[in-house]
């Protein structure tokens, strides 16, 4: 919940006209914070004693977290495209017939 509050505050602050002029500096600061976050995550992973043993199971789990949502998204988009594009084609054919 704290993350959502911080994100909402960030969105509201980003809407201020004063900060729009400082966009380049803000982008640089965001990039620096992202690098710092990735570095800190790497340090935390490096501190684990059995990191390399866990890496294979972690990699497989990550692969499943990628594959399942992607696969279901593709199937859902394909199905919805078939349903709605079919309706759109039928309405276009009716208009041409008139």
UniProtKB/TrEMBL annotation:
Q: Where do transmembrane segments lie in this chain?
A: 28-46, 58-80
In its keyword annotation, does this UniProt entry include Transmembrane helix? yes
Which terms are listed as keywords in the entry? Membrane, Transmembrane, Transmembrane helix
**Which top-level group of life is the source organism from?**
Bacteria
What this protein is called in its record is DUF340 domain-containing protein
Q: Native species of this protein?
A: Evtepia gabavorous
Taxonomic lineage of the native organism: Bacteria, Bacillati, Bacillota, Clostridia, Eubacteriales
């Amino acid at each position: 919940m704290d993350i959502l509050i911080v994100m909402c505050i960030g969105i509201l602050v980003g809407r201020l006209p004063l900060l729009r002029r400082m966009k380049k500096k803000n982008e640089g600061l965001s990039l620096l914070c992202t690098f710092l976050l990735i570095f800190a995550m790497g340090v935390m992973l490096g501190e684990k004693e059995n990191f390399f043993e866990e890496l294979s199971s972690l990699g497989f789990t990550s692969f499943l977290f990628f594959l399942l949502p992607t696969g279901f998204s593709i199937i859902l988009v394909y199905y919805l495209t078939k349903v709605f594009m079919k309706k759109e084609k039928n309405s276009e054919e009716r208009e041409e017939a008139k």
